[in-house]
Write a structure and sequence with these properties.
181 residues; alpha+beta; Peroxidase, domain 1
Length: 181
């Protein structure tokens, strides 16, 4: 999916601007979330990766599945799916939805902070991190945590493009680079 992250930004920006102008941010977010579920379905992924399926057929298939799932696709959403199918980028929907969510949160003065730690964080530790990040970023913060034993100790905090690596493994990697110069 890393291949789609850079390509996803212009799509997400265009969708965000359209949704903002029409006052439909939540509707687009809901539609994109459902589209991600469809695009990541194993059977749909097989269809998306099938070069023999024409883009028009693929967009029709995708939109019919979306309609069966209850998605009320307006002309703009249908056009997005057709465009993505034409450019063979339907597999990039998760990255587009994530980039859209980030833009929406920024507009609302919110940000999601992901904290990867070697050990489970207590609620008090999470609150302290949220408070520090809110102060640093000037935004309302929501925390998502993940335990990763490979970090040995410490944490990696990610907020948008900001990454703070305070893990022991990160420090050892920096040391190894410094010693190899």
């Amino acid at each position: 999916m890393a291949d789609f992250e850079t390509a996803a930004r212009p799509y997400a920006r265009a969708i965000f601007e359209l949704a903002s102008a029409e006052g439909k941010l939540q509707q687009w977010q809901d539609n994109l979330q459902l589209a991600v579920l469809i695009a990541t379905n194993d059977e749909m992924q097989d269809s998306i990766e099938q070069p023999a399926i024409l883009p028009r057929q693929l967009s029709e298939l995708f939109l019919s599945v979306a309609a069966a799932a209850g998605l009320q696709a307006d002309a703009d959403f249908s056009n997005l799916i057709k465009l993505l199918a034409e450019n063979r980028r339907l597999a990039g929907l998760p990255a587009i939805a994530a980039a859209f969510e980030t833009l929406k949160q920024e507009a609302e003065g919110k940000i999601e902070v992901r904290v990867k730690t070697a050990q489970e964080l207590s609620s008090e530790q999470q609150d302290r991190i949220a408070s520090s990040m809110a102060k640093r970023l000037g935004k309302e913060v929501s925390i998502t945590t993940e335990v990763d034993d490979s970090l040995i100790a410490g944490a990696i905090v990610t907020a948008g493009d900001l990454v703070i690596d305070g893990s022991a493994s990160g420090r050892m990697d920096k040391l190894a680079v410094a010693l190899n110069k």
